[in-house]
Specification:
Strand order of the largest sheet: 2-1-7-6-3
Strand content: 15-25%
Shape: globular
Distance between the termini: 20 Å
Structural class: alpha/beta
Number of strands: 7
Helix content: 25-40%
Radius of gyration: 14 Å
Length: 121
């Protein structure tokens, strides 16, 4: 399982969960350095990747409350939602927001997996 998270330094509650996920994932645990992976312009299949992150797989079986906050601007970006998993990857729901707004590039093995699932590779 590939676990993607971008919240290492932003949310103590998320850290507790991601530390548990890291133990389960071992070497397939990917921290995303948001700012280091932002692009200045969109990239091929960006919208398809964002849509996959929003819609594919199933929601985590957890309850979440409150609002999601843009970790760059501090602005509210909407109600919090559970993350998602497709059986190979697991990610926070907000990841699609960062792909669209900041042209966030995912780790290559995550992008390759998504593009293969969408028959775009």
């Amino acid at each position: 399982m590939i676990y993607l998270t971008a919240y290492r330094e932003f949310n103590p509650d998320w850290m507790k969960l991601t530390e548990q996920m890291k133990k389960m994932a071992g070497t397939d645990f990917e921290w995303l350095d948001l700012k280091a992976n932002f692009q200045s312009a969109s990239y091929p299949h960006e919208e398809e990747i964002a849509k996959y992150l929003e819609e594919k797989g199933e929601q985590w079986k957890v309850s979440v409350t409150g609002y999601s906050i843009d970790v760059v601007t501090g602005e509210t970006i909407g109600n919090r939602k559970p993350g998602r998993t497709d059986g190979v990857m697991s990610w926070p729901y907000e990841l699609a927001y960062y792909v669209r707004k900041y042209h966030l590039r995912l780790p290559m093995k995550a992008e390759d997996h998504i593009l293969n699932e969408l028959n775009l590779a």
